[in-house]
Amino acid sequence: MKKVLVPLAKGFEEIEAVSIIDVLRRAGADVVVASVDGSECVCSSHNVRVLTDCALSAVDSSSFDMIALPGGSEGATTLATDALPQKLIKEFHAKGKFVAAICAAPIALHAAGILQNVPYTCYPGCNAQIGGLYTEDKNVVVSDKIITSRGPATALAFALTLVEVLFGTPKAKELAAGMLKTCC
Amino acid sequence: MKKVLVPLAKGFEEIEAVSIIDVLRRAGADVVVASVDGSECVCSSHNVRVLTDCALSAVDSSSFDMIALPGGSEGATTLATDALPQKLIKEFHAKGKFVAAICAAPIALHAAGILQNVPYTCYPGCNAQIGGLYTEDKNVVVSDKIITSRGPATALAFALTLVEVLFGTPKAKELAAGMLKTCC
Hints:
Chain A contains 7 helices and 9 strands. Chain A has 184 residues and is of the alpha/beta class.
């Protein structure tokens, strides 16, 4: 069983978060949605209120294979500045686990110091804060165990890439077909 | 102010629902998320628990411009068989308001009797239940006030089309650019 941690902070981008959760659960992953501030309900950037599975502080991080961060300016800023998600990003990276971030959330990887000399992408403009090896011509960038993507319209491709690295290409292709990704 | 009603029934497809809500709110619509069974929290097809704004039975339907239905097999079946969403679909259509459905949800429009002689699309296979003027080569079909689409991967295009019919093409193009739709 592959286990994926999705931290939600107030102001997360809901298409991005839900694409990650939905697609990884379709693949069979155990996806744990955890609130950064410990509240049961977290409100997205456009006021969709999602109930979380637990508080991030209550998570046993050792049992996970991946941490995947949705964007949204406010949510990503919290992921970049709050001590707990920063500690977890560093820990997952140090243990050779997958670390994934989309849209504004790569700023949280940068804040954790793990994007140095790593090709990445992000929401256009956020790269100004990050510098380094910004890649603007790809929707999803896989750099060893660090996976980044650009924004709401690339969220499905991003989530399918997370499936690919955890479950293999045939599973990702099967899900893409079922979600009609081939037709877009 | 444009007002859009999004009924959620247990087992709704979460990428589709959230794309509708997120994109229409970005456009400035007043989007009301209403639970078909009256519960405050509705669970999606992949166990994302979303808090609704109100019960569908408490909605004053006269104030809305559009009803937009997410898919998901279980949720769409409820929309097709429960008396209240069926009454609302018929009422919106009879009053010349927009009626929109994606994925499996066009079966609810069919059940309400409003898809006769209307070109539509839906999740591949659901057309077997509906018959009529199924269009398989388009991701979004606009037939006067009835707008239909195919599945999770077409949800963003569907939501942007809802913005287009309510707010005009420039607003839809502006949002598409901001969500990086042009890059996919």
